[in-house]
Amino acid sequence: MRRLDVVFGVFFVSGLVQAQTALPIEGKDKHLGVASCASSTCHGSTSAFADSNVMQNEFALWQSQDPHAEAYQILLNDQSKRIARNLGLKSAHEADMCLDCHGDNVPASARGEKFDMADGVGCEACHGGSERYLSSHASGQASHADNLAAGLYATEDPARRAELCLSCHLGNKNQMITHRIMGAGHPRLSFELDTFTWLYPHFEVDEDYVQRKGEPNGARDWAVGQGVSASTQLETLLDDSAGWDGIFPELVLFDCHACHRSMFGNQWVPRRGTGLGPGVVRYNDASLLMFRHVLAAIDGAAGEKLAGQVRDLHVSTTRGRNETVQAARAVMATLQSAIARANAAEFDRGMLEKIMASILADGERGQYRDYAAAEQASMAVDAVILAFENNGVLSADEAEGMRSRAEGLFEATKDEDGYRQSRFVEALNRLKMSAP
Ligand code: HEC
Ligand code: HEC
Ligand code: HEC
Ligand code: HEC
């Protein structure tokens, strides 16, 4: 299911990536429509070209296996109809609230002649409106930097890619998956950048790819993805309209099972690191927890500082809105520089070992009380094992062995409603015995 042939360890060159920062949906360039990409001499070939930089069968792959091609059609199904009815919407497929994530919902003025909303999450929803780059990028004369300058979105850069994917897979302050939408019947969203990047790929990492775009690195993608996820969520909390719903903060930002749990009592145990007592709704800090492992491996003192700031954030939510805003701003400031450090870090053996040890140690520290954190930790362990394998710390057999022991983590997080911290910690301890 995931890539097999990526070699890690080469420092990623990402000097070009600042050219375009607006998300595709916010850019000024017209979106010309999937049909503009799909000609058989462009990306619409039925099989991969041998003598081209890119495969050129991206359209066929997207159409036949990528769920993004179905994203709009889903809005016509019974589940969507029920969600729309519950929310009092006329119809799901005409509501911006749904189309922002299930289509390429750019303003009418930015839609070219072949643009078709029914294409769902099409090429330009991720690669940016092609008005300026369509002909130049196909000429074979333009460099990747030229294409970026002409409006191509830097999907290869982990931070930019994380912002893009998370705009729909977590929601951002302009595109929210609110608790009201959840309440109406929308599935809970869950995302991890490295895992999700490789689920339905229409691209291949080969020699010329590395030359044009640098070497991908799964551990780095995971790390940067967690940092961007944490900051996207805080940005929503800090936004006056998106972060609040009446007298309550937007509930989707909080740990779902702080509220959605049985009422029999005698179950409460403290979660160290939050400073919170019983009966409090906790901010969902799963990404912050994961990113702390990364930062701690880069710079121990900076990791401690972030842990302290996250604790302040938790406590501030029991004091008031102004205190919360202040504490959230402090965490944001730390994240901004830390994400850049993670992006530039070399995920070598020493660093990976520290990250893995830190993830495992949190089990004993009682940090996996909340389902969301355990779920993210399972995906993190998976990303780190693969990275160990790719940079030669583990042989293929050893990695396979470790992966099968890590299955216990996925077992323990399979049933969200039946999640038990004790089972998860047992699984972590079994894994600990085999960690390199
Ligand atoms: C913030 C972005 C976002 C918004 C807003 C949003 N969705 Fe979704 N929706 C998603 C994502 C992402 C998934 C896929 C989740 C996954 O599989 O990980 C999804 C999944 C779904 C599914 C389940 C699809 C399946 O394959 O089972 C339905 C139905 C759905 N959305 C309907 C709606 C409707 C109706 C609205 C508007 C009221 C809406 N969505 C608003 C992002 C969004
Ligand atoms: C959900 C987002 C998304 C959609 C939709 C999407 N892509 Fe991509 N595409 C990516 C990502 C991520 C990569 C890999 C990172 C990179 O190389 O930029 C990529 C890579 C590519 C590459 C580069 C391969 C290389 O060797 O440099 C091409 C070409 C491409 N996509 C074409 C298309 C076409 C054509 C469509 C529509 C049929 C499409 N993509 C739809 C996200 C998307
Ligand atoms: C414009 C919104 C949008 C963007 C941007 C987007 N996605 Fe999605 N994605 C969706 C929706 C909606 C679905 C659900 C579609 C469905 O179920 O058919 C989905 C589904 C998926 C799935 C399938 C999930 C599953 O449970 O099988 C993967 C994997 C995925 N997206 C990865 C990515 C990655 C990686 C990126 C960034 C490169 C990305 N997406 C960017 C909206 C988006
Ligand atoms: C502060 C408490 C609180 C938090 C946190 C919270 N919820 Fe809720 N949720 C509620 C309440 C209260 C209702 C019931 C509203 C009603 O009955 O109309 C509800 C209803 C729901 C429903 C509808 C259940 C039904 O009866 O069909 C879903 C689904 C849901 N929440 C999902 C989530 C998810 C997913 C999260 C985390 C991202 C979350 N909730 C976080 C309090 C919360």
Whole-number count of domains = 2
- Number-wise, the strands total 2
Strand order of the largest sheet: 1-2
The assigned structural class equals mainly alpha
Shape, per Cα inertia axes = globular
What characterizes the major β-sheet? 2 strands, antiparallel
Rounded mean pLDDT is 90
Quaternary class: single chain
Q: Ligands in the structure?
A: heme C
**Low-pLDDT residue spans:** 1-20
Proportion in β-strands: under 5%
DSSP summary: helix tally? 19
Task: Give a short summary of the structure.
With 436 residues, the protein is an all-alpha fold. It is built from 19 helices and two strands.
How are the secondary structure elements laid out?
Blueprint: H1 58-65, H2 78-87, H3 96-102, H4 123-127, H5 134-138, H6 144-149, H7 158-171, H8 179-183, H9 193-197, H10 207-213, H11 218-238, E1 244-245, E2 248-249, H12 256-259, H13 286-298, H14 300-316, H15 321-344, H16 349-364, H17 371-390, H18 396-412, H19 421-432
Antiparallel strand pairs: 1-2
Residues 74-75, 79-80, 83-84, 87, 92, 95, 97-98, 100-102, 168-169, 171, 175, 177, 181, 186-187, 189 line the site of one heme C.
Characterise this structure.
The chain has 436 residues and is mainly alpha-helical. It folds into two domains: 17-153, no CATH class; 219-432, no CATH class. Helix content is 50%, strand content 1%. The chain has 19 helices and two strands. Helix 7 (158-171) crosses helix 11 and helix 16 (349-364) packs antiparallel against helix 19. Residues 1-20 have low confidence and may be disordered. The structure holds heme C (HEC) (4 copies). Residues 67-68, 70-71, 74, 101-102, 121, 125-126, 155, 161, 164-165, 167-169, 196-197, 199-200 line the site of one heme C.
